[in-house]
Design goal:
Distance between the termini: 19 Å
Number of helices: 4
Strand content: 35-45%
Strand order of the largest sheet: 1-2-3-8-7-6-5-4
Length: 180
Amino acid sequence: MPTGYAETSSSDSSDLKTDDVICQRLLDTLRARPSTSAGESGDAEFEKSTSGPFVASSVVAFTGSGAEDAMASVRDFAQKCPQFTSKVDGTDVSFTAGLLSIPAYGDESAAMRFTGAVDSVTVGVNFLLIRVGSAVTAVEVADLGTPDVDLTQQMAARAAAKLRQVEAGETPTSSPPPSS
């Protein structure tokens, strides 16, 4: 993690949740939440302060075509769920989903940004889903206003590098990964 971030206890309480079944299924996939076609998984959350920015990462090793299926299901998230309502700290927030333009990572990747407002304060969340072989990692950067795209890309590059190491049968190196 970049300097100044501390690990927080992972909790589903900060997750975006919606009553729309299709959008919730896509949100779970986008966050690399385990499914019936998944094997091992893990996640971590970090914050710079109690008001953000927040960084979360999760990884799932899939069986069969699960990883490819997960990527395919989120590629058109913005078309399937252009808007959804979720609770954020107990308050209903209407989010708009849009594509996020960043470099490709891993064997394939998909990126989007959710933007919402709470009492005239903008809340933004960058999501990036990366597949390397049969594993998928999700990187999430949330903040007031517009989340930092550079931080999102930095975290995505680290996550993809670590997945490549695992795919090669190696133990991932500590962050930051060695320069290539």
